[in-house]
Backbone:
């Protein structure tokens, strides 16, 4: 069996379509088994264990599916198996920890620091000080790294694969903040022994449906209960050190760059910002999926308007951005990928500050009022008012309470923009209600 040298937290669809695919496609795949942990629920881990970690990857093109059995995951565990998690991290041969845990799991405050007022973080601080089991992602990472220090197992790389700008430093900041609060010497050990790698990850991976499960059984004869559907396109750009080695991901198409920022900005603004626009404004028009929304001429015009604003703030050549936009339109329009607007609409209060607000601020600094960005904010406010996709965001409460007033929502979301009358007027004007 492949030895476990990578540990993953956030076992779900995207990890299996992306990082696990690159690892399995690398020429040294036999040396790099992955032990993967779910966030909390044991279900996916239980099923994968029944399948010896194997699952079918369905690469869904506009015309047909390609299916292959993926074998990089050699062990699957429930996120609640804390002792097992610490045991892996304490092994010297484990060289890489990867993460796909959603933006919200980083528990950051508005400045990007760890939110020490978060009840989960407060509970984890107690657990970490008194030998209990932490539950949050920062808590579990700090506990795992403490176990590694105690075992003198040496250095490793932590690789965030979530849609956060500067996800390496962002992870370092929350882990460092929590470790410092637990024990300053642990924080110092982490600084010396842990490399936080920054990545741009891209492969549209919708939730698996019952039809997908049936399609695999029909085509292959294997009753795989947990296949993953993804698009043909895939991209991974990484920047940072791997002090104890890594799979030869570059041989499978990953790129290593000194500066990941231009690529992550391009992706966050154009792809993820475009997704958020379609999720809120498209669902308000009655659409269910990205492919449906992007083929509606009204949504398409709004998407172009947003992209025209956003590209001004992506530090890449104009020709590259034109090519990227054209490719994105094809990806979004793939009629066989059922990427639901409801899935993408989740956690808006965590996503919009990353995908949309930087463009708003840059446009306002340049003296322009960005109508495309204002439309995204307006559509999100209307979503909070009950229009379009349902609200699925643990942090949405205070925003919903204020949803009747554009000014109050923006004051909470971005206090620096609260007195920007031109912007508030543009957002209010783009709202269809109130
Ligand atoms: N799906 C995509 O197209 C895609 C593409 C690029 C990046 N991503 C990144 O990957 C993340 C996961 O996407 P997915 O499609 O695999 O979702 P998923 O729902 O299939 O899996 C998410 C995993 O993260 C865990 N998780 C969720 N919230 C958590 C929390 N608060 N604390 C701890 N663990 C938590 C879940 O338990 C699960 O194991 C996204 O949020 C995004 O940051 C996804
Ligand atoms: O995964 P999220 O929740 O951060 O965002 C939803 C989508 O925008 C996202 O998953 C994209 O499909 C993905 O980032 C494409 O690579």
Residues:
């Amino acid at each position: 069996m492949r030895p476990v040298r990578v540990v993953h937290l956030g076992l779900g669809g995207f990890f299996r379509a992306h990082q696990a695919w690159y690892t399995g496609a690398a020429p040294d795949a036999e040396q790099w088994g992955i032990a993967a942990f779910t966030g909390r629920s044991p279900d996916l881990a239980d099923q994968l264990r029944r399948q010896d970690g194997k699952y079918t990857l369905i690469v869904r093109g506009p015309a047909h599916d390609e299916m292959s059995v993926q074998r990089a995951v050699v062990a699957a565990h429930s996120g609640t198996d804390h002792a097992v998690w610490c045991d892996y991290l304490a092994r010297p041969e484990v060289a890489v920890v990867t993460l796909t845990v959603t933006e919200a799991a980083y528990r950051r405050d508005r400045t990007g620091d760890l939110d020490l007022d978060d009840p989960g973080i407060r509970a984890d601080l107690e657990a970490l000080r008194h030998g209990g089991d932490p539950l949050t992602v920062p808590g579990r990472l700090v506990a795992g790294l403490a176990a590694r220090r105690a075992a003198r197992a040496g250095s490793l790389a932590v690789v965030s694969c979530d849609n956060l700008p500067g996800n390496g430093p962002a992870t370092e900041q929350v882990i460092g903040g929590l470790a410092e609060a637990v024990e300053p010497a642990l924080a110092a050990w982490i600084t010396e022994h842990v490399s936080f790698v920054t990545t741009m990850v891209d492969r549209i991976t919708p939730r698996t449906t019952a039809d997908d499960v049936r399609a695999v059984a029909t085509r292959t004869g294997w009753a795989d209960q947990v296949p993953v559907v993804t698009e043909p396109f895939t991209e991974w750009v990484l920047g940072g050190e791997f002090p104890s080695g890594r799979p030869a991901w570059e041989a499978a198409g990953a790129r290593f760059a000194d500066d990941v920022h231009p690529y992550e900005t391009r992706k966050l603004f154009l792809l993820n910002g475009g997704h958020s626009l379609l999720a809120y404004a498209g669902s308000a028009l009655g659409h269910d999926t990205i492919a449906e929304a992007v083929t509606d001429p009204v949504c398409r015009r709004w998407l172009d308007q947003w992209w025209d604003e956003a590209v001004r703030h992506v530090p890449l050549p104009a020709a590259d951005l034109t090519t990227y936009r054209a490719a994105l339109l094809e990806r979004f329009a793939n009629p066989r990928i059922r990427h639901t607007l409801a899935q993408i609409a989740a956690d808006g209060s965590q996503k919009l500050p990353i995908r949309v607000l930087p463009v708003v601020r840059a446009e306002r600094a340049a003296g322009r009022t960005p109508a495309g960005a204002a439309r995204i904010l307006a559509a999100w406010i209307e979503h909070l008012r009950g229009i379009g996709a349902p609200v699925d965001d643990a942090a949405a409460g205070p925003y919903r309470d204020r949803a009747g007033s554009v000014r109050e929502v923006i004051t909470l979301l971005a206090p620096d923009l609260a007195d920007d009358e031109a912007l508030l007027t543009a957002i209010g004007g783009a709202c269809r209600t109130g």
Summary: The pocket of nicotinamide-adenine-dinucleotide (ligand 1) is lined by residues 10-15, 38-40, 100-105, 137, 162-163, 201, 203-205 (CB under 6 Å). Residues 261-284 form the longest helix (24 residues). The mean pLDDT is 97. The chain is about 50% helix and 15% strand.
